C-alpha cells in the first residue's frame, strides 16, 4: 500500500484553498496519467483531473504552441480575429463539429459557455418578436456551471445550498435514470415514462413560453454517466423541433471524444441547435470553452441589433493555440476511437472486480466516462446515510493506494465514483484503476463496519 498522501493537508491559516479545512493536495508535476505530490508520491489520475485531461500531461508540442502564440500576441479583444482563433475555428469545422453548426464563440470556460448558450436562446426569440418565450427548461439531475443562471437551471442540490435567494426558478424535467426509474427496469416503460414527463411539463408551462431546453446527452458527474433509454433523445429532439424549442446540448464534459464519439449526441445521430463544449476542447492545457451554433439561431439576433457580449479572456490567443494543437493530436493519434476501445476495456475490468460486490449497484457509462454507484442494499437500492460521506471515504482510500477518482452525485444523489482518465492511459494503468477501486471501496466500508 502507498504511504498516505493526505499529509499535504491545508492548514486553517493557509491562503489556499479558499475555504479553510477543505481537503487539498499539493501537486508539483505530472506526466501522462500520473501526478506527483510535493511529498514525491505518485498518484494515478483515474479522473483526468475533473474529467478534463484527454491527451495526457506533458505534451511539449502543446506547450510550445501556447508559448509561441502568446509571445507573438499576448491579448486581443475577443471579437477580433487572430491567427490562433482562425486556426481553431477552422479545425473545429473541418474535423469535429456537426456540419450544420457553422458559427463558433469562445469563452474562458464551460460555465461561461453554458450561460452564453442560454442567453442566445432567449435573445433569439426576443429578436424574432416572440417575447413570451422567456423560459429555459432544465432537468432535475444535472449540472451546467457555477454562474447564478447556470446554477439555477441545473439540478445539483449541493451546489445550490446557501444560494436560494439568488436563484430564479426554472421549469425542470425528470432526468432519465434507468437504475431508479419509477416505471421499473423495462426500457420501453422507461421511455414512455420520461417522454410523458416531458409532455406534462410542456403542457403545464405552455410550449409557446419556452425558448430552449438545456441538457447533457449523457449526464456527467452529477448523475454518474447516466445514459437514457434508447429512443429518448430522438423523441425529445422531435418534440423540441415541433414546438419551436431550441435544443441546447451541454457537452462540456462529454464532448471532444470523451464518450467514444466526437460528441455524445453522435450516439443518436443528433446535432442540437446550440452545442456547448469545454474541458476536452483544450484538454486542461488552457482554460477555454466554446459555444457552437448556426445562422438560423444567430441571424435574427444580428438583424435585431442585439449584443452577444464577450468575456474578457474568452478566445485567448494562447488558449486557442493550445486547443488547436490538442485537437490535432486527438485526430492524428485516433484518440476518439481509443476512448471507445479503452472505455470498453475499463468497463469490463470494473465489472470483473466489482460485479459481485454487495454494495455496488451498477457500473455504467460510455467510452471513458464511467461511473460506479454504491448502495447500502443492492436489492432495494437503499442509499447509505448522507452523514456517512462514503464517497469522500472512498476517495481518501483510493489516494492512500495511489489512485485518484472523481466524486459524483448531487448530495441527494450520492455515493458515485466517476472515472474519466486520459485517452492515452495504458491498459495496465486502467487495470490498476479498477482493482484499486475495489480495495478503496472495501477500505471505506471497513471504517464503519
Structure description:
This protein folds into two domains: about 25-55 and about 335-445, Aspartate Aminotransferase, domain 1, CATH 3.90.1150; about 60-330, Type I PLP-dependent aspartate aminotransferase-like (Major domain) (Aspartate Aminotransferase, domain 2), CATH 3.40.640. It starts with about 25 loop residues before the first strand and ends with a helix. It has 13 helices and 15 strands. The model has no long low-confidence stretch (mean pLDDT about 95). The strands form three sheets. A seven-stranded mixed beta sheet has the order 4-10-9-8-7-5-6, with helices on both faces. It has a four-stranded mixed beta sheet with strand order 1-2-3-13. A four-stranded antiparallel beta sheet has the order 11-12-15-14. The chain is of the alpha/beta class. β1 and β2 form a beta hairpin. Helix content is about 35%, strand content about 15%.
Question: Could you give a short description of this structure?
Answer:
The protein is an alpha/beta fold.
Mean pLDDT: 95
Measured on Cα atoms, how large is the radius of gyration? Answer: 22 Å
Question: What is the helix tally?
Answer: 13
Trace the largest sheet across and list its strands. Answer: 4-10-9-8-7-5-6
Q: Any idea what the CATH superfamily of the largest domain is called?
A: Type I PLP-dependent aspartate aminotransferase-like (Major domain)
Q: Give the domain tally.
A: 2
Q: Spans with pLDDT under 50 lasting ≥5 residues?
A: none
| Helix/sheet category | alpha/beta
Strand content: 15-25%
Shape: globular
The helix-strand sequence is EEEHHHEHEHHEHEHEEEHHHEEHEEEH
Helix content: 25-40%
- The CATH topology label of the largest domain is Aspartate Aminotransferase, domain 2
CATH top level of the largest domain? Alpha Beta
Number of strands: 15
What CATH architecture label of the largest domain applies? Answer: 3-Layer(aba) Sandwich
For the record, give the distance between the C-alpha atoms at the N and C termini, rounded to a whole number: 21 Å
Largest sheet report? 7 strands, mixed
Amino acid at each position: 500500500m502507498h504511504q498516505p498522501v493526505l499529509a499535504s493537508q491545508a492548514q486553517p491559516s493557509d491562503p489556499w484553498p479558499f475555504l479553510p479545512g477543505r481537503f487539498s493536495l499539493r501537486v508539483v508535476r505530472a506526466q501522462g496519467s500520473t501526478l506527483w505530490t510535493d511529498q514525491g508520491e505518485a498518484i494515478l489520475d483515474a479522473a483526468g483531473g475533473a474529467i478534463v485531461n484527454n491527451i495526457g500531461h506533458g505534451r511539449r508540442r502543446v506547450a510550445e504552441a501556447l508559448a509561441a502564440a502568446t509571445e507573438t500576441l499576448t491579448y486581443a479583444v475577443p471579437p477580433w480575429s487572430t491567427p490562433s482563433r482562425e486556426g481553431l475555428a477552422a479545425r473545429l469545422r473541418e474535423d469535429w463539429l456537426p456540419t450544420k453548426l457553422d458559427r463558433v464563440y469562445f469563452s474562458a470556460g464551460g460555465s461561461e459557455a453554458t450561460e452564453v448558450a442560454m442567453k442566445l436562446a432567449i435573445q433569439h426569440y426576443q429578436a424574432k418578436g416572440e417575447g413570451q418565450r422567456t423560459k429555459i427548461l432544465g432537468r432535475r439531475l444535472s449540472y451546467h456551471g457555477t454562474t447564478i443562471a447556470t446554477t439555477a437551471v441545473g439540478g445539483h442540490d449541493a451546489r445550490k445550498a446557501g444560494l436560494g435567494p439568488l436563484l430564479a426558478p426554472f421549469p425542470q424535467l425528470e432526468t432519465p435514470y434507468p437504475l431508479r426509474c419509477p416505471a421499473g427496469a423495462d426500457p420501453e416503460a422507461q421511455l414512455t415514462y420520461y417522454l410523458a414527463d416531458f409532455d406534462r411539463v410542456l403542457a403545464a408551462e405552455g410550449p409557446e413560453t419556452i425558448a430552449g431546453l438545456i441538457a447533457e446527452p449523457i449526464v456527467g458527474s452529477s448523475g454518474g454517466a447516466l445514459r437514457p433509454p434508447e429512443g429518448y433523445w430522438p423523441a425529445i429532439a422531435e418534440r423540441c423541433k415541433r414546438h419551436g424549442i431550441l435544443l441546447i446540448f451541454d457537452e462540456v464534459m462529454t464532448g471532444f471524444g470523451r464518450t467514444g464519439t466526437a460528441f455524445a449526441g453522435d450516439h443518436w445521430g443528433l446535432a442540437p441547435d446550440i452545442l456547448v463544449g469545454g474541458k476536452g476542447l483544450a484538454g486542461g492545457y488552457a482554460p477555454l470553452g466554446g459555444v457552437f451554433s448556426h445562422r438560423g439561431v444567430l441571424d435574427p439576433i444580428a438583424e435585431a441589433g442585439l449584443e452577444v457580449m464577450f468575456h474578457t479572456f474568452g478566445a485567448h490567443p494562447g488558449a486557442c493555440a493550445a486547443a488547436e494543437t490538442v485537437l490535432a493530436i486527438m485526430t492524428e493519434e485516433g484518440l476518439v476511437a481509443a476512448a471507445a476501445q479503452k472505455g470498453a476495456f475499463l468497463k469490463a475490468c470494473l465489472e470483473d472486480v466489482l460485479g459481485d460486490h454487495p454494495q455496488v449497484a451498477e457500473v455504467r457509462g460510455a467510452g471513458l466516462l464511467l461511473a460506479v454507484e454504491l448502495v447500502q442494499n443492492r436489492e432495494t437500492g437503499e442509499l447509505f446515510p448522507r452523514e456517512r460521506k462514503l464517497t469522500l471515504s472512498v476517495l481518501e482510500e483510493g489516494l492512500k493506494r495511489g489512485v485518484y477518482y472523481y466524486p459524483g452525485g448531487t448530495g441527494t444523489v450520492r455515493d458515485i465514483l466517476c472515472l474519466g482518465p486520459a485517452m492515452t492511459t495504458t491498459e495496465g494503468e486502467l487495470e490498476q484503476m479498477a482493482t484499486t477501486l475495489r480495495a478503496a471501496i472495501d477500505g471505506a466500508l471497513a471504517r464503519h463496519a
